[in-house]
Amino acid sequence: MNKIERRNKILLLARDVFAKSGYHAAKIDDIVAAAGIARGTFYLYFEDKRAIFEEIVDRAFARLGAIIVRVDTDDPSRPVVDQVVENIGRVVHVLLEDPSTTKILLSDAVGLDPAFDKKLISFYEGAAHLLESSLEDGQARGIVAKGNARMFALMTLGAIKEIMYQVVMRGLEVTEEQIVNEIYGFLCAGYLRTPRSD
C-alpha cells in the first residue's frame, strides 16, 4: 500500500470512528486500532485528531460544493425543473451515499470550536448565496414567487439539512427518490412555479 492509499484508508476509518463515537469521545487510539497501524504512523500523516477530522469535513464540503450547479434559466435545452430536481438529487445522493460523513457534518462538526464554526458558516453561506442568486434569476423570469430570495434560500437549506438529519441520525426510512420528490414538492408548494410534467 502506497502513502496515498494508506492516508485515504486512515481517513476512511477515522470517519467511521468519529461517526460512531462523536468527535470528543473518539480517541487517536481508536483510529489507529481501526486502521491497524501504529500510533507513530498516524502522526506521519496527521498532526492530531482535529487535523484528521477537519480534513474529513473539508473533503465533504468540497464534494458537495462541486455537485451544486447554478440553475441556468436561459438554457432552452434543459428545463429549469429538470435542473432543480437534478441539483436536489445530487445533494441527497451524496449525503445518503456516505451516512457517516453526513452524521459528522450535521452533528459532530457543529460547535466544535469557533474556528470550525466559522468554516461551517462559510460553507453554508456560499451554498446560500448560490441558491439565492438562482432564486433571484427565477423571480426575474416568473418561475419563483416574489419575496425575499435570501430567506427562501435559507429555508431551503434548513429543510434539506433537517430531512437528512432525520434520515441519517434517526433512521427515517425513505428512499432517495422519495426524499427528492418530497423536497421538490415542498419547494413547489412554497416559492417554485415550475410544476413537473410527470
Give the beta-strand count.
Answer: 0
Low-confidence stretches: none
As a whole number of angstroms, the C-alpha radius of gyration is: 19 Å
Distance between the termini: 49 Å
Mean of residue pLDDT?
89
Q: Report the portion of residues in β strands.
A: under 5%
**What is the string of helix and strand elements?**
HHHHHHHHH
Range of helix content = over 70%
Biggest sheet details: none
Q: Please report the number of helical segments.
A: 9
Shape summary: elongated
Helix and strand composition category = mainly alpha
Question: In brief, what are we looking at here?
Answer:
The chain is an all-alpha fold and 198 residues long.
Q: What do these coordinates show?
A:
By secondary structure, the chain is mainly α. The protein has helices spanning 3-21, 28-35, 39-45, 49-67, 80-97, 99-108, 114-140, 149-170, 176-190. The model has no long low-confidence stretch (mean pLDDT 89).
Question: Keywords, please?
Answer:
single chain, 198 residues
Write the layout of secondary structure elements.
Layout: H1 3-21, H2 28-35, H3 39-45, H4 49-67, H5 80-97, H6 99-108, H7 114-140, H8 149-170, H9 176-190
Helix pairs in contact: 1-2, 1-4, 1-6, 5-9, 6-8, 7-8
